[in-house]
């Protein structure tokens, strides 16, 4: 009897799971495992929401499995030790997993594969988190793209020639269910990992993902017009589910594809941005620590701790920036438009090194993904490939007026400003020193003056580029 182990990582689902489908096709008995990786967990604070999100998602997946008299192994430790130990215990002949392209994961997987090989256990890894891997969409001379638009054109051309909607994803549920034996460890692994349950602002698990997907189906037709507005339904809200693989990238992409035509190009473009950044990180791993354009590493960032802390807490005195940061702090989410505005504000108004902002987002975002986060920060700080030019500096006031015209987003996250009208709320300090005092509103004074910092930022960038 051929026994296999499927190692679940950032793909917590049973449907359209490439490694799982392959394991089922090849095996008589398929076992599942998820490992809370101690090396990743030890860097996170005990109140990290993502651990709860993963925990709840695993619990849901496990409940689904019990319907079929099946459960999943949940372990805590170093996968390099735990995977070989488990394979020995169960007596599997092969381990299946979907590829993860981050440096830490690549090294870890290499070590696990080598160890298993020494034990005479085979491994097979699969493309699953992306439609195309880094070296599948290259320029004619076989070098990587550094500009998004031609990359996107080539990506779409290849996609059209290889996929149709019907072929995009497969259901493997029925067959899988009969093959998995009872394996779930009853240990309370959340306690074991030292993490306490946190309140989540979104529903965890595949059920949560499918609800969000259904909601977005109703709005996808207007996505190209609304995607920058700061309303809950103006974008899909799918990123945390994509990040943890509660839904496959093929299921998400299929929303924008009909037969073999792309019907929602703006939406598909965003998914291609995700693959673009993934490709950049794979071909240019240096971006994890430095600017894609090395000359930008010479910037002498003038901003210090005071500015960074005001930004982190959402106390800069710029309502749109503060609303975005408080939303991030309280939910782990932030709309894309505000990620761009707050990132630009940190580097180009507060003059703080983008790497400090990148790190903060990495700690807080429910959808944190190294490639997209790094890409977004390098784009906003102008240090990346195909980035915003350094002299383009978002004005928080005009961004606020344009994308939160009634001030509803600000009202929600900066409730002390709620009584201001749609005009005042974007710049409460513009109405004189007594304006807020008379209204009994306590809201921080602007930590810096935008206009003078704009001049300083341009000089700071120019001097580094000389
Ligand atoms: C400074 C900064 C940091 C970011 N950090 C992350 C991150 O850690 N993880 C992350 O998934 N996205 C990140 N993004 C990209 C983007 O902000 C989020 O993907 C988006 O806000 C998620 O919301 P949504 O699912 O409603 O997006 P939608 O607009 O509905 O887009 C659908 C999907 O496309 C992908 N996508 C959309 N925009 C981008 C983009 N600009 N770059 C890459 N992929 C994109 C995401 O998978 C998203 O779920 C960052 C952007 C910036 C400017």
Structure description:
This protein has 466 residues and is of the alpha/beta class. It folds into 3 domains: 1-128, Rossmann fold (3-Layer(aba) Sandwich); 130-170 and 206-283, Serine Threonine Protein Phosphatase 5, Tetratricopeptide repeat (Alpha Horseshoe); 288-465, DNA Cyclobutane Dipyrimidine Photolyase, subunit A, domain 3 (Orthogonal Bundle), CATH 1.10.579.10. Helix content is 49%, strand content 7%. It contains 23 helices and 7 strands. It has helices spanning 18-26, 38-41, 49-66, 79-90, 103-118, 148-162, 165-168, 173-179, 189-193, 205-219, 223-226, 239-243, 249-253, 265-283, 305-313, 319-331, 336-349, 354-364, 370-380, 396-403, 408-413, 435-438, 450-465; strands spanning 3-8, 29-37, 73-77, 94-98, 122-126, 257-258, 261-262. Strands 3-2-1-4-5 form a 5-stranded parallel sheet, with helices on both faces. The protein is globular. Mean pLDDT is 93; it is low at 173-179. Flavin-adenine dinucleotide binds next to helix 12, helix 14, helix 17 and helix 19.
In short:
The protein folds into three domains: 1-128, Rossmann fold (3-Layer(aba) Sandwich); 130-170 and 206-283, Serine Threonine Protein Phosphatase 5, Tetratricopeptide repeat; 288-465, DNA Cyclobutane Dipyrimidine Photolyase, subunit A, domain 3, CATH 1.10.579. The chain is an alpha/beta fold. It has helices at 18-26, 38-41, 49-66, 79-90, 103-118, 148-162, 165-168, 173-179, 189-193, 205-219, 223-226, 239-243, 249-253, 265-283, 305-313, 319-331, 336-349, 354-364, 370-380, 396-403, 408-413, 435-438, 450-465, and strands spanning 3-8, 29-37, 73-77, 94-98, 122-126, 257-258, 261-262.
